[in-house]
Amino acid sequence: MTLDGGVNSGTSRQRGFWLRCFLECGWVVVAIVLALACSALRSQDCIDAHGRPCSAQDSRRLRAVTCKTEVVSPNLFLAAPTTVSGFLLDQTGAPFAIGEQTIVEVRDPKKSKALYSAPVNLRGRFDLGLVKAGTFRLIVAIKVHGGVLERPPGFDQPARMDCSGDGECNIRPIVRADHSEDSLASCPPK
Questions:
Q1: Is the pLDDT of residue 115 over 90?
Q2: Per-residue confidence at 68, pLDDT binned at 50, 70, 90?
Q3: Could you state, in order of their start, the residue ranges of all structural domains in the chain?
Q4: Contacts of 181 (CB under 8 A, 6+ apart)
Q5: Residue 190 to residues 23, 121, 183: CA-CA distances in angstroms?
Q6: Which pairs count as long-range contacts for 110-115, CB under 8 Å and 24+ apart, including other chains?
Q7: How many whole angstroms separate alpha carbon 3 and alpha carbon 70?
Q8: CATH number for the domain running over 74-175
């Protein structure tokens, strides 16, 4: 009986140990599983009608449609031809530059065609030179491999800026942090 009782009590202790571990540490396992599931879902651009991840082709097609239908508004208004320069800042007032690859572009807001472009130095300074009068879209972009432009990760484009027309305009566009998981984040900047 003691042998039997000893074996049973050892098994009970072992089961008790594993049960306590599961109950006490089970939330860690659940958290890890949930994190992996969320990560897998975030890596997918879309889900089909049956709840399955889209194919790579469908995902590319959806991204192209999303990027093409993005609507942007003008944010730079010049009353007369003006020399435009300034400092690019983040929302805290600190200079904004991601290495030597940060650029500022003035674009036609309807066609999204670059009209003027200037690099931003590490202190946030840029100089676009003489810009004709008109309504434009000023964007901030990062130049990556092969000269391709990308949006600054986690930041929105600057808000409205006006230049009244003294011949010189020193602007301070501010890029604001945007922590939403925007479907446009992977689109080229507009």
A1: yes
A2: confident
A3: 2-66, 74-175
A4: 42
A5: 52, 21, 14
A6: 112/72, 112/137, 112/190
A7: 76
A8: 2.60.40
